[in-house]
User: Fold these one by one.
Assistant:
Number 1:
Amino acid sequence: GDFITRAEATDFTGAKYLLAFNEPNFAAQSNITAQQAAALWPRIEAIAAKYNLKIVTPATNFCGGACNNTNPYNWLKDFFAACPACKVDYVASHWYACDGPALNFNLNSLKQFNKPIWLTEFSCLDGADKSPAAQSKYMTAALDILEKDPAVFRYAWFTGRWPGEPGISL
């Protein structure tokens, strides 16, 4: 609710997109269930309508710690089940596995929602080797996959800005 109140008070003039909740299935992030997000969605739609914004789903990811749902695809399924008439233009995801087959798995799993995919964060954050060379190798492979997949609308490399993980901040 606090996020929504702040968003309702924000001037989005000039914006084109409204990205909803960040990692809602993580206790350390927006920490709301799919049903809670669905209940708040009319307010998201009202903000988007006011500024003529396209709406992006909450950006989910696999959660291995404190979570309200460990599986991002199940969270999204629950969201769409609780909100079948909700306006959604794009489906968002985060992805930190470090190889092409894993990235393809994520993209193919997101295609079930029949929306263009926006990979709002990705890098090789979960890899054992976080060196700049490993990150560059993964980035090259990932960009090839992302550029060739017509279901992908946009993507953004995640730079952690963490001194202990300089490799992801290429």
Number 2:
Amino acid sequence: YSMYINKNIFKPASNAKKSFDLVFAGRLVPNKGLALLLEAFDNAWKMMPDISLAINGEGPLKNWLIKNIKHKKSGKNIFYRPYVKTLADVADLYNQSKIVVCSSYAEGGPLFVLEAMSCGLPVVSTPVGLMKEIVRNGENGFLLKSWDVKEMTEKIFQLLSSPTLYAWCSR
């Protein structure tokens, strides 16, 4: 695909410490499905209290996001970062994470998922954009059938609770 990913920047870093279980990066706007992401994370946190989520981005929903993070019990495990300065910093964030999650309702690529996948991350994604063509269930992550919180939670849990499946999907 002609997504123009800079493979000199977006590549796996073998020495990166995995500080975050999940990562989302993008503009904080309604079509990104942030409420879906937070609800799925909250459900996963109830099953895995040590799970963590890094969110990177700016946009009109920034204040809504910060408020929601503060009011959730799982919020202590959600780390919000505004936009980072360079693409190398974004790649570092991906390399510090285990799984990229796309909860969007509408997308073209989405480019952030493809960048994270270039860093070796498996994906859990809603059926948007190119994800329907790129994600192969159980091989490089999971493509959800719809925008269902329960299914998203299950796929996140499945990847994180099975070291063999995770290793297979992140190769």
Number 3:
Amino acid sequence: AWDDERFSFSAKKSSFPFHGNLIEIISDPNMDVLKINPSFFKDSISYYRKNSAYDVNVNDFKYQISTKKADTLYVPFDPSTATTLRFLENEIKRPVYIGIKSDINNEDYKSLFDVSEEVYKSLLQESNNQVAESLLLMISGTLEWDFNTETGIEHVNNKNRDLAAGISQVDGSGLSRYNLITSKVLVEVLN
């Protein structure tokens, strides 16, 4: 819903999410400053102190966070290509390039395959629909560099043809009322 756009559970999906596409803002009653994570966003967030709270301006929305006790606020940001590239360049201290898949030799680049166990463990311990949606986009991007949810779902179904008959999936989210799964499929996955 439009009214939910400013809340953490409405972080936008993207093909390369970082920090869950959320900005963490922390207040500390012992210090008169806010801590911003990732610090990359520090210069783009303004705030001022009132009596009992800071007024924080992010993404054209105004939030309040306590000055009296430790408090944490999670604010979604727009994960544009430009923002993602600037963030990556800032973190790895090297330029990042956008290219056409057919023009790039994949052997020259590192992948993120070695972190898959950590990602899946995180998803199983705490349901995170934004990460699940982003993984579907990444799957489709790996195939064609076309970040498309339907392509990701089709690829997953093709890889798991035996299970696909008992699954109706329209998106990566566990919240959609249109995603359906039979108990037989759940038992087969667990086995």
